[in-house]
Amino acid sequence: MTRRSAVGDPGFAVQQAPATARAASDLRHQFSLWARRTLLCSNELLGDICLAVYEALANTVEHAYRGRTDLGTMDVFASYRPATRTLTVTVTDHGTWQTPPSHHPRHRGHGLPLIRALCDTPTVTSTPTGTTAQLRWTLFARRLSD
Amino acid sequence: LPASDADAFHVDDHSSSLGESAMSIVSVVRGQLAILAVEGTIDIVSAPQLSEAVHAARTSEVRDLIIDLSATEFLASAGMTALVDAYEATTSDGQFAVVADGPATSRPLRLVGLDQVFTIHSTLDAALTALT
């Protein structure tokens, strides 16, 4: 396949997607297409990135608007800086952050531990109007041509 | 499994086509062992279907369960929760194993430590050998 230069890539941006399970699946697909043509990294890391982004979306769908009757939305932004080989992805909701229960492999809720394991430096910032999860990676390995 | 035993199999096909989260489960039962082969995507849309298939497979004759993720292309944490539920439903009186190999399935399972909870085999043959 022909890969577009990562320099000047406009990034990935979807705003006000409905916070539904179907939309999360569709966004995962769209994001993976962008990541595949933009990022120079191994397929394993590509898989890690797409899974972590999906988990952030799924967490929003399942928790951000719990107890509310109106349909919430979520925003996804991703940008890659070739100079520093840094990928930054943010998933933002406009709901209420739910404190996750403590983690044990046999208990429910593997999403946040999975994000922490897959991502270099995940951060979660909550304000009264919403929550932003920021996921960052530094891409070291150059992807082999395929 | 030997092809000559095919007549003894009970096969259920739980399929769905939900856009980017398409999943299909083929359930094979022989004696007290059920094997669920999951193809496609296990995410928050399709994970409940996996739990339903596990429930449907657990008849009074079935004690042991293998969930085969060899053809699973994407495994999200919702799918991992379904696997843990299946493990807990099975191990009071039977054996449980997962077949997973590669970055889409085995890797995330190990990253959250589920290889410490149930046994993960890289092939179905290895799982069958371990359970029989």
Write the layout of secondary structure elements.
The complex is a heterodimer of chains A (146) and B (132).
Chain A: E1 12-18, H1 21-38, H2 43-64, E2 73-81, E3 86-93, H3 111-118, E4 123-127, E5 130-138
Antiparallel strand pairs in A: 1-2, 2-3, 3-5, 4-5
Chain B: E1 10-16, E2 23-30, E3 33-42, H1 47-57, E4 64-68, E5 72-75, H2 77-90, E6 96-99, H3 106-111, E7 119-121, H4 124-131
Parallel strand pairs in B: 3-4, 3-5, 4-6, 6-7
Antiparallel strand pairs in B: 1-2, 2-3
Helix pairs in contact in B: 1-2
Quickly give the structural class of chain B.
Answer: alpha/beta
The string of secondary-structure elements of chain B, in order, is EEEHEEHEHEH
Q: Averaged pLDDT of chain B, please?
A: 88
User: What is the β-strand count of chain A?
Assistant: 5
What gap, in angstroms, lies between the N and C termini of chain A?
7 Å
Please describe the biggest sheet of chain B, giving its number of strands, its sense, and whether it closes into a barrel.
7 strands, mixed
